[in-house]
C-alpha cells in the first residue's frame, strides 16, 4: 500500500507542476490572444472600449488582474472544465474542439498502436525463442521500417494505394459527400474504417519494428537467466517455459514503454494526420500553431500532459501487480 500511496503523491505533485507550467509558459511568449483578435476586428472598423474589455475577459487576458489572481482564476476555470475560447474558431470553446477531435485520434491511433504492440511483442518473442535460425533475418527489415519517418511512409502509401492504385481515399476521416457529420450507423462506421486503413497502416509499419527488436533482445537476455536453466532441468514443457518464464519476464520493459506510447496517442502523429487531412488532435494542433491560437494550444498541451501522466501512473500500478519486486524495492 505504501508503494501506491507514494506513487499517487508523486503524480499529484507532478500534475500541479504541469498545470502551473501550462499557465506560465504561454504568458511568457510574445503576443497575446486578445491583441490578435482585436487586430482582426479593427480591420472592419474601430473597436469600442467595452468590446475590447469583453474580449480580454473572454480570452483570459485581463490586464487589471495580478498574475496571482490570473493563476487562481485559471485553476477555477479548469475545475469548471473551461479551457477558454479559440481564436481561430471564435467563438467556439476549446473544450468543444478538443472533444470533437479526441475520438478520432484515440480510435485510429489507439487501435493502431495496440495492434503494433501485440504484433511486435508476439513476433519478437518468437524470434528471440528461435534465435540463431533463419527468423533472425526478419530483424533488419523491421528495423528499417522503424527508422522511416511517419510522414514519409504516409506519402508512400498515398502514392501507392491512393494515386497509382486508387483503392483507398487520400484524405479525410469519412466520406464528406455522403455524410454531413458523424452518425451512429453501420454505413458511417464502414466509411470511417475505409478512410482509416492507410493512416493506421502508417502507424503500424513505422512502430512495429521497435517493439519487435526490443522484445527479441529481452528474450535473448532472459533465456540466459538461471531460472530458465532451472525450469529446463526440471523437465517443464517448452510451451510453459516460453509463456510462463521467458515471455512474462521479457515483456516487462515493453509494458512500461507501451503505457507511454499509448499516452502519446492523444497527440496524434501530427505530420501523418496532416498528410491524410485526418480530423484528429494532431491536425488541430497545427491549426492552433498556424493561427497563434494560444488558448487552443494551451488546452491541447494540458490534455496531452494529463493523458501522459495518467497512462504512466496506470502503468506503475500495473507494473506493481506484474512484478512484485517493484513494490518491495520502491
Automatic annotation (TrEMBL):
The keyword Transcription regulation appears for this protein: no
Domain of life: Bacteria
Pfam families for the chain: BPD_transp_1 (PF00528)
Main location: membrane
Subcellular location as annotated: Cell membrane; Membrane
GO biological process, one term: transmembrane transport
Database matches in InterPro entries: MetI-like, MetI-like_sf
Residues covered by the ABC transmembrane type-1 domain: 102-315
Family per similarity comment: Belongs to the binding-protein-dependent transport system permease family.
The protein, known as: ABC transporter permease
